[in-house]
Amino acid sequence: TTEKAMAESENLLRPDISKKITKIMPAAAPLDTLIREAGAHEKTGSLDFKFYSSELRPFVDKLGAAFTRPATLPSDSVYELTVTNGKVWQVDDGFIFHGVNGEDGLGLVAHIVGKSSDTLEVIFLNGDDQAGQQDGSVPPATIADETSIGRLGNSKAELDAQTDPYGHLPTDRWNYSQQHMAQVEESLWQKMHNKEVDWDIRDMQTLSLFDLRCKMEATSWFGVRRKVFDPRGDDYKYHSGGVARFIERNIEIPTGDITDKEFAGWSKQIFVGNAGSDRRYMFIGSDLNERLSEVPHVSKQIDGNSTEVIYGLTFSKVETNFGVLLIRHHQLFNYHGFKDSAVVLDLNNIRKRVYDPMKVRKLDLMSSGIKKANAYVLEEHFGLETRYADTHAILQPESVGS
């Protein structure tokens, strides 16, 4: 029965949901895992979920046509962009351009307010000069065709009570994952129909939680802090700023081979002169991770199995003359233009501020006559506080942002 399904779902999404979330593939969202677990002061292991066949909704898409902009990109104007895979996107999603900077010198971020097939109606969060130029850079007059864009979290207005569901149906190849707010639905016919494998709304909730925390993780890194007016929704929305937007210490790294001397220089810039911890966490993209593993000082320690497990996450432990770097390859960095970059955090100075904690709401769609389906909304309202900006650092190739 529907009541039975609701009861079973509540067993999954019980009050300690924040702790349950950290067990769903923690390696994909290490910052989220560390913050949740450190706040609770307890460790958790990783749970492997076996599905008939599952695949996350792609995190990266490309422009399907070049975009020529006017002199500025004010956040109260709506622009149309063409993408190659419109099915990836939903209204209220955000995304970051690869290799295209906004007025703050970091990746240009857009927010979707309307969608039709492969055409997205967007507003730009950091495309004009409202916040003041940091390095004099502005988005180029034309953003080239096939420029990559990576998904960020969605942003909802004050009166929004639900979001568009993203389908979760078992196939022999992949399943869709859903997204701060995500919604899952299961029609009564789908629930009653014979299936080749057991697949119900609990499985959908598990995948939605994974996708939701990955999107929150991406926003926690790269989101743009901005209050904007949505011309289509006729309401204001609040966007949380990611930690990368608050870090002022930028370290340029070479595009070629990295020497021990250069690595020592980075270490000095990371640890010296900021009164931070002597243990910092370095989250790193795949390309830089590959190059860094060839640095003699680093490779000797990695080859010697110098590792440390923290809350179920394994970090490579590299000792320098200035402090200890705990290095972790971050899978999501590849999707958001940071595959050859790294972010170093002093986690003692990162705090999560929660406005409304993670929870689940059941939508009564049947009694209201909307549709015959079981539906649940998963939501969390929070932002990160990045204190003492000098204790953190961004490492990027010399060509990035120049």
Strand content: 25-35%
Number of distinct helices: 9
For the largest beta sheet, what order do the strands appear in spatially?
12-20-17-13-16-15-14
Q: SSE order in H/E notation? A: HHHEEEEEEEEEHHEEHEHEHHEEEEEEE
The tally of strands reads 20
- Main sheet summary: 7 strands, mixed
Classification by helices and strands: alpha+beta
The residue ranges in which pLDDT falls below 50 over 5 or more consecutive positions are: 1-6, 8-15, 40-55, 130-136, 167-179, 187-199
Query: What multimeric state do the chains show?
Result: single chain
Mean pLDDT: 75
- Using the alpha-carbon principal axes, give the shape: globular
Rg, please?
Answer: 22 Å
Q: What share of the residues lie within helices? A: 10-25%
Q: How far apart lie the N and C ends?
A: 60 Å
Fold and architecture overview:
The chain has 402 residues and is an alpha+beta fold. Helices cover 21% and strands 30% of the residues. The chain is built from 9 helices and 20 strands. Strand 14 and strand 15 form a beta hairpin. Helix 1 packs across helix 5 (201-222). The radius of gyration is 22 Å and the shape is globular.
